[in-house]
Specification:
Length: 440
């Protein structure tokens, strides 16, 4: 008789644990990045009244007789399913679509979280403002190159920091030249009814802007060969020398694609040279402040075509004037791109994500944080959108994955389970009372 009471007591204790887990899930229904828990039960030791025996002496086998002695907690698992993304519009709020965890650190230990409510700290680093933990990733070097093979560190986003001028090393020209050419007429350079012109800006090593104008003229009626001429702004007294283009002409094939000698051109097939600055030595086009002429800028014409349409050309250089960092953006792959007041964009860093062989084995550390455990495996840290890690959505936060309908159902199950076990104790007590009363 006592066995039923002890079994019911184990049911009471473990259904109370069940209720504790349900209550915690419901309490965190609006917690950013929270992952709900699930309780599983298993029976505990059973008392064997009679063991099993095999067939013998013309009789069949006998099954074992066992009386169970109660219930125990089989496990309390963390369900690592995706939560709903909630739009915030804040630039530094981030959510992970897919697997993976942000890596944050206190300088001594790495923690892992799905809570992407970040901000830029007073020191310019990306932090979680609720606990001060730094977001880990990789910082770009002065040339904007990110090396993800090195250990991750704090990410700095120096809003307001200035940048020096970026020297122009390439000028990309794209657009179309009208294939309905007419003969060139007199003038220097010669003019044509469908002559194409382009005015573009290049920058020296101090970030000063200089204007160059390009003129493309067909060599004859119906010709697919165009001569290229370049000239500087006559009012630009700082830019000296006579600019030149080499080669001086470009040929288009039957499909309207640019070629040289019958072969497709590359980004470095043409270049502009003969440019210097006055006074000499203070800055030069295409080199550093102490560079010497002649200087060359690659003229990328791979984006040009010759089709039966009006001529229209655009140019874009990789140089920039001096400016300051005003804002930044974060891409799906976690790349942080700085946007400067001069319109220049340059990589600032890369956010890191961690993945685990068994995410369910992570240990909850409070504050929306997880730590690795012996059963989660070590963290595999790398760039988002690679190695099975999810993508980053900027301006969103991941909500809790708690399903309220399921939790209320679990609440009823816990309540009824507790109630039924308490009734077993009451009934066992009544039987014991009847047993005591036999002697009367």
């Amino acid at each position: 008789m006592m066995r039923s009471m002890f079994a019911a007591i184990s049911g009471l204790k473990n259904h109370q644990t069940f209720m504790d887990v349900v209550g915690n899930n419901i309490a965190n229904v609006n917690t950013t990045g929270f992952k709900q828990s699930r309780v599983t039960f298993q029976d505990i030791l059973s008392q064997t009244v009679r063991g099993a025996s095999g067939p013998q002496g013309g009789r069949g086998g006998v099954n074992p007789e066992q009386v169970g002695l109660g219930v125990g907690i089989g496990g309390i698992d963390t369900i690592q399913s995706q939560g709903t993304l909630q739009s915030t519009g804040k630039l530094t709020d981030m959510a992970i679509q897919g697997d993976g965890y942000f890596v944050v650190s206190d300088g001594k230990q790495n923690f892992f979280t799905r809570d992407g409510g970040f901000d830029v700290g007073i020191d310019g680093t990306l932090v979680n403002p609720s606990n001060g933990l730094h977001v880990m990733g990789w910082q770009a070097n002065a040339q904007g190159v990110v090396d993800t093979t090195t250990p991750p560190t704090n990410i700095s986003i120096p809003i307001g920091a200035g940048m020096t001028g970026q020297t122009s090393t390439e000028l990309a020209v794209s657009g179309n030249l009208d294939s309905a050419t007419v003969p060139a007429s007199g003038g220097n350079p010669p003019t044509s009814a469908n002559q194409a012109t382009l005015s573009s800006t290049i920058y020296d090593s101090l970030g000063n802007a200089h204007k160059l104008s390009f003129t493309l003229t067909p060599t004859a009626a119906g010709s697919n060969v165009w001569n290229i001429a370049v000239a500087k702004d006559p009012t630009d007294t700082a830019l000296s020398g006579t600019p030149t283009v080499s080669p001086t002409s470009i040929t288009f094939d039957a499909s309207g694609k640019p070629t040289i000698g019958g072969q497709p051109i590359t980004a470095s097939s043409f270049h502009v040279g003969g440019l210097t600055l006055t006074p000499a030595g203070t800055a030069t086009i295409g080199t550093g402040p102490t560079g010497t002429p002649p200087n060359s800028i690659n003229l990328d014409l791979t984006g040009m075509t010759q089709l039966r349409a009006s001529s229209d050309l655009t140019g874009n250089t990789d140089g920039a004037s001096a400016g300051s960092l005003t804002t930044f953006s974060v891409g799906q792959s976690g790349e942080i791109t700085g946007i400067y007041s001069n319109g220049f964009k340059q990589p600032l860093g890369q956010i890191a994500l961690a993945s685990f062989a068994n995410p369910g084995g992570l240990t909850k550390a409070g504050g929306n944080l997880f730590t690795s455990s012996a059963n989660s495996g070590t963290a595999s840290i790398g760039a988002p959108d690679s190695g099975g890690r999810g993508q980053i959505a900027t301006g969103f936060l991941e909500g809790s994955n708690v399903d309220l309908a399921q939790q209320f159902t679990n609440m009823i199950m816990a309540e009824r389970g507790f109630q039924a076990n308490s009734r077993v104790i009451t009934t066992s007590d009544e039987i014991l009372q009847d047993l005591v009363n036999i002697k009367h």
